[in-house]
Amino acid sequence: MSQKLIKIPFEEYMSPGSVACPGCGGNLSMRYTQKALGLNTMIVIPACCWSIIDGPTPSSVNHVPVFHTAFETAAATASGIKAGLHAQGKDDTNVMAWAGDGGTFDIGFQALSGAAERNEDILYVTYDNEAYMNTGIQRSSATPYGSWTTTTPNKKERPKKNLIEALAAHHIPYIATASVAFPDDLIKKVEKAKSLRGTKFIHILAPCPPGWKTPPEITIKLARLAVETKIFPLFEIEEGWRYHITHESSGIPVGQYLKPQGRFSHLTEADYETIQRDVERNYKILKMKEKMSKEISAMD
Amino acid sequence: MYDPLEDENGQPRFAVSTGDMSWNKTGSWRYMRPLYDNKIPPCTVGCPAHEKIPQYFAYVKDKKYEQAWHIILEDNPLPGVTGRVCYHPCEAVCNRGDYDESIAIHNMERFVADQNLKHHIPQSFIRDKHEETIAIIGSGPAGLSAAYQLTLLGYTVTIFEAAEQAGGMLRLGIPEYRLPREVLDKEIEDIVRLGVTIKTAIRVGRDIGMDTLQRDFNAVLIATGAYKSWGMNLPGEELKGIASGLSFLKEYNLTGSAPIGKRVVVVGGGNTAIDTARSALRLGADVTIVYRRSKAEMPAVPEEVEDAQREGIHIRFLTNPVGFSGNGKVEQIRLIRMELGEADESGRRRPIPIKGSEYTIDADQVLLAIGEVPDLDFLPDSFKLKKDRLLVDHFQRTGQPGIFACGDASTGPIGTVVDAIGTGKRAAHSIHQYLSSKTVHIPEEPTDGVPFDTLNLDYFQQESRPQERQHHSTQLKGDFNEVNLGIGEDDAVYEANRCFSCGTCTYCDNCLIFCPDVAIRFDVDKHEYVINYDFCKGCGICVQECPRNAMSYEEELKWA
Ligand SMILES: Cc1cc2nc3c(=O)[nH]c(=O)nc-3n(C[C@H](O)[C@H](O)[C@H](O)COP(=O)(O)OP(=O)(O)OC[C@H]3O[C@@H](n4cnc5c(N)ncnc54)[C@H](O)[C@@H]3O)c2cc1C
Ligand SMILES: Cc1ncc(C[n+]2csc(CCOP(=O)(O)OP(=O)(O)O)c2C)c(N)n1
Ligand code: SF4
Ligand code: SF4
Ligand SMILES: [Mg+2]
Questions:
Q1: Can you list the domains of chain B with their CATH numbers?
Q2: Nearest to A68 among B17, B21, B541 (CB)
Q3: Which of A183, B4, B178, B289 is least surrounded by CB atoms within 10 angstroms?
Q4: DSSP classification of residue B60
Q5: A46-85 residues touching B, CB cutoff 8 A
Q6: Average pLDDT over residues B416-432
């Protein structure tokens, strides 16, 4: 007498008791990711909400070791741990750097770029809540156009950094976007990343109720709308050039995603139009890249 | 001992966490509490017998048809009948209708009943044993439903039936091409097997008195239906060849033949009119229905009107008879054209004759099907009536101690088989309370089903409703084979899955999957989800992501 709509692995590698806010998309992102990685894993977390969420050292909600490190060093630390494990012949242990958007798009970008260029055998996941949440909602380069933060009290005038493209330029084996509203897709992507050697990068959009000024219960609803409005399409890039959209966005108007969020409450219809136009263009570019990479594959 | 992870002072060199957080009981943060809370779906509210629709669908999904049937049987012992002839008010309020197309609930009911034609209602359904005996007058769906429920409650029931065979209108009125008699016989037999005695060919008031029943039984239930046909009081109505549609149907249905003309005119727009016309057609007549309003106002079920027209029955809308003529036997019927005026108390627009529009058509048989009222002559005058029906209260009580009434004979929801089944069930529970405690208290009828806008539609996609198969005869004369053939197994399973299961958990795991805090688990032994309130922060995601509103979100203070 059961009807499963979504199927995900049963085993849990995370326990309750985390310090995440109610409804935290970041907390859920970790829960799913670990379902794919399993126990033979080490996690590196730089300064970010998750360094608090996990609990005060040595406490941890995770069933695998968590190495806390400095804000800008996630990728470098993960690379070092991987090298240490390699020296001990433990090449099968997954090493995952797990960082916020600030620690990834901004201050940690140098370390990430270095690791990616060297093609270190690590998985780097950013749970993107689109601002420096842990320190009180300051803008990051992942904050989207139009958003309120404490450091953009009117609205952010610059668009969100297209980090995925910056990573693609490093020609690493695997890059993917993922969403907590699509756990099966997310888990599949982590499993794929786990099976590949070299640098893998996964970008998870993780709604943050206090930072986005939203009620906690709509976290999944928002994550889904971000995908379905084409604001945050779900896709993967292999070897930096083979694009594949894993879920076709249905194209719901962006207003439905923006309206319920307090951080966008000051936006006008004209802003919605601007955002809609950008979103349509970006999605078209993505579709063309997917088409182009298929054509190039066919030529090989 | 040397530990490379510690410095010379025994402090860790790195911040590595390997402990646990079970000490951090985050449940104390919660000010809203999610909880599992199944609710009543609109279909169950809309069904006058309140069948547990998503619950039996759950078994259909797993192809467990006997269990599905047992769920239906809690509320209705005649699903093979209602699955065929019920006008399915459940479907009119089905939430799926607000999304794409309502669930084909009546087809599902019929499918489940048909899968169980070889099974019988288990004796183990009888829950109790009581000394008291109950007499029921009439073996239509109302009497049968009450007899069944009273038997399950442990009473000894005797039904007195005037006709030669049990079934009421199901046998006397409804034609075989809509309700094959094997199905009716099987479902009545199932009730008899449980221990109900049906004494046929005994008319109360003629063969046995009401006073005898009151003396010999602890309670009496009147379920005598509505059999007296209304006449039109028109000139020439006494001519031979003019009769009620119901008497024609009764004669054909009981004996297998009835006198039939060549050109038959049926007067009326209800289901009796349609059944009369389609039966007459099958006996070889050319049939015209005359109805005083337009198609939109017809009380008959639209599908059956379509079927009648497809089969070749002419319908003259906005037309009414004004008289009949003929030499001892009807030969002509005089008609007048009508137009629609203001709405009347039934909400339908009142038909008004158009002056000077009279005309005449030939007819050698006229069957009047303009309504039936109960025949309550067997009762003393002390019983209160309202609009020709026995006045009853919400508990089906007549006001006379120990005498109850249900179905078409009494006031209240009337006119359909499932109303009869629903009021029969309620009468049974009233009688039980009357006999066991002398006070009657029945929970209020459910009035609100889970609203459409409380469902989470993210988990559904547009899907169409399966089409019922039909038997279309090229040679209708003599063909009383069933016309509607129901849906097959694939469609039934598909339809069970298409149902939103409003307010009823389907164990889809969404709550468990989307909990950020790993605070929900599934208890396999108890077959239920368990929320760990020591840790649940009350974010409410589980409640929001439940596709079917089977959870609630309440202020924690209520639980303090
Ligand atoms: C032609 C026709 C077609 C219909 N089609 C449909 C349909 O498709 N769907 C639907 O939902 N409804 C339909 N109806 C209505 C439906 O049949 C009735 O609403 C329903 O049968 C009422 O049930 P009941 O048990 O109250 O009465 P009935 O079914 O009328 O049964 C009453 C029984 O009491 C017996 N009885 C009467 N007086 C006495 C007495 N003094 N002593 C002993 N026994 C007595 C009668 O012989 C009869 O068997 C139709 C009605 C007709 C006439
Ligand atoms: C070098 C350095 N600068 C500043 C800080 C303070 N700091 C800690 S977490 C944080 C913000 C982290 O933002 P993000 O990476 O987006 O993660 P989030 O908290 O949003 O999850 C800041 C600025 C620090 N720990 N180290
Ligand atoms: S501030 Fe946002 S990201 Fe940080 S724990 Fe709370 S909900 Fe999660
Ligand atoms: S969708 Fe299913 S549960 Fe909901 S009203 Fe329709 S039949 Fe009933
Ligand atoms: Mg952040």
A1: 15-38+505-559 (3.30.70.20), 42-119+455-498 (1.10.1060.10), 123-227+374-437 (3.50.50.60), 228-372 (3.50.50.60)
A2: B17
A3: B4
A4: H
A5: 54-55, 57-62, 65-69
A6: 96
